[in-house]
Predict the structure of Subtilisin-like protein.
Amino acid sequence: MKKLIYIFFILGIITSLYAYKVHASNSNIVKNSENIEIINRRIFESIETDEVSDYVESTEGIEFVEGAEVTESVEKNVDDVNSEDLSDNYYLIFVNNTSDEISTPSDQDQERQERQDSNDFIHSMVSEIHNLIIGNKNTYKDPSKLKEMDENTQMSKNRKKDGEVKYLLNYDDYSNYVYPISTVNERTVLYAYLSSDLVDTVKSLPNIIDCVPNRRFKFDSHYTESDILQETGWNKLKVRENADLHLSILSQGKYSEDLIGQYDTNYYYPGAAGQDIDVFIFDTGFNFRHQEFSNSDERTSKCAFGIQKGKIVSSSSSTVCNTADLEKYNNVHHGEMVADVVGGKQHGVARKANLYGIIPEGLDYQDEANVIAGLQYIKDHLLRPNKAVFNFSFGEYYDINNDSIVITHWQSLINEITKMGAVFVTSAGNNGTPVIDKGKGIIKYPCAFDSMICVGGIDNSSGGSKNMHSYYYYRANASNYGHGVDLYAPAYVNIAYRDSYGRDREGFVGGTSFSSPIVAGVVATIMSDNRDIKFNTNTMIDYLSKIGERNAVKGLLGDGPNILVNNGKHTVYSLNGKYYGCGIYSGRKKCASSQCCSANGNCKSSSSSSCTSKEGCQINYGTCKKVTSTVEGRCGNGYGSCHSKYCCSASGYCGKTSEYCSVGCQSNFGICN
């Protein structure tokens, strides 16, 4: 009796399908034909299409999840999916997998029978939809996509046989184009790639509940990509999630615990990431076999040459050079660490920059002859104009009154290379003294050279932690300072390197030796993202000064500039989405209509003295009163606004040219392009 009932059930399905085929015979959709083989076996493959891969690639490093929700932009994508231009797409087909006509004597047998009947019915439905797709390939905008699915399926099979891919479920029993992905009680979900012409046809099949486009979710984020691109002017945004502190500091303004709920540990940077920019690192040994430099498809990382008593020598290996006896010296693996800070994949600022190690004969020092000879060789044989950055993490004090011919020649050589479109970056030193100490009659080179970006350090001594505190903005005690130092950068960094025994090591190290390569990396990212600008050292100093975070460094002595390096993104976001202030230092939040946003990011009553442009009131985030500067030509916090139709430059001067109105322009005190 049980078998008889089951036979009648199957005959009912066949009759329904036949009646459906007859009803549809006048349609332009081919339901069945003699040249289409009805599928009796189950064929299912995991499908990975270019369309899906492209989408994943476009969000790489940009968005990450606390919770996902459908946003307006996603809804727009869904509308696009339903449009004529994007009619071929993935759909979710909801199927009623039960029949009320089946019954068996015992509850246990009935459950087993219903489960089998449900599976058989789903397989028959998959076969039906598969045949619809095969018979109507001409309705697809891009039929080659189906062929591509078959090819990907075969590749997956081959990889599976080779042991490279191991599926957790048996996917060999269904179609490449349609297959089940979920069942809850009487409802089964099929995943199918359909043309728009097939959608209504599928909906009219027996037991089909609905057929809807597969919607995409945009991961919830505490920042907005479009806002960052508008603020920075970058061509493309990349984000390194939960990055080292020395990186996250570079891409946000001054952090305050009073304004945001949780420090943003992300490192935001231009997508070009230093690509096609050459960074020449004069330092101790290098080992480019470490995983930090493994992206050889994107850039070159190599030992360029060595220098022995002023003579240029080739390196015996392009990837490992001069590391054998480094453990004997204090500067253990200094060159490897510096290279990692410039361009390591995880710890580096510019992960796509070309890195060239220049190795002197001494493992714990540089000398004048070797540096001059190395510069000359690069100038004559390796330099690509407007694509070169030099990093010098070394220096020494000289007699300020002694006009050494060595210094004169060294300066002249740097000037020539700068004119060819190179940028020089060096460390300020770790003596805790002025770079130019007139009282002692000494001056530090190469820091004090013209056409040299000299970098001091801030005390972000977190012990390797990725969290920030406002007291990390103090100048590091050991960092040199004063006139001659152009800007400051984190002095403490997380690094990875491979020691002379081939062991991979990680560490947390400090000194302006690492402040310098941080800035060299920032320079490389700027150059790669602004290929139309012909940078050299002098124009780069000007650019970094304009986009830098002004007056952020605490505890400075002397008369040098107070600029913390920044790559162009100043908005401070909260990782947990909680904000206690306003303006760029508090997620660009706005105050109530009766309040202004003060210069330090607090909402104040509009009657407060903080609500005038002279006091730096942030005009885009509250109600501010414009106060025109009484000092002719000057503008900014402490001065006030420019006259109407004038821009306020980064350095606080009013004007109308691009020098005033573009990079670094202060919108709180005038107009900006």
Q: What stands out?
A: The chain has two domains: 2-219, 273-563.
